[in-house]
Amino acid sequence: MKWVNHMLVTGAIVYAVTADPLLALYSVAGSVLPDRLEGRPPKNKKAYWKWRQNHRTWTHWTVPYLLIITVILLLRHLKIITPVFWPVMLIVLFFFTGALLHIVEDFLCGKVPLINYKKKIGIKLFTVDSWGEYFFSIMLTVLLLLYRGSEYFNK
Description:
The longest helix has 23 residues, at 131-153. The protein has one domain. It has helices at 3-18, 21-30, 33-38, 45-53, 62-77, 86-107, 131-153. The chain is globular. It is an all-alpha fold.
């Protein structure tokens, strides 16, 4: 997915689940982390294809992100993270949740190493930077915001 769609979809998902615009914003910031860790694709054609071979490898492996999220939640459960520090940890938690959602979103348009680092899996619902990607992203965002809106108005 293109970064704009990662940000849009991730923000909508987190907002639909939490109803908290700040948590959605933190996750939007984290939604580009896996690609940012890889750096920008080179302009040179030969260098681009070398970069492309390493695209969606260790930066798109779910395990490190899940581990960080699990440790934060475990430390909170064990009361090691005190209420004073919880707001800061919440930022970190949702930042990495955004990165994790990025990987799930890439799973929908290509292959990523979800569980096994050496084995990429995925489905191809649409091609990156296609009308299908933008349609999917916009429709999912609209549906999620309508869901959140209906929850708000039905209270």
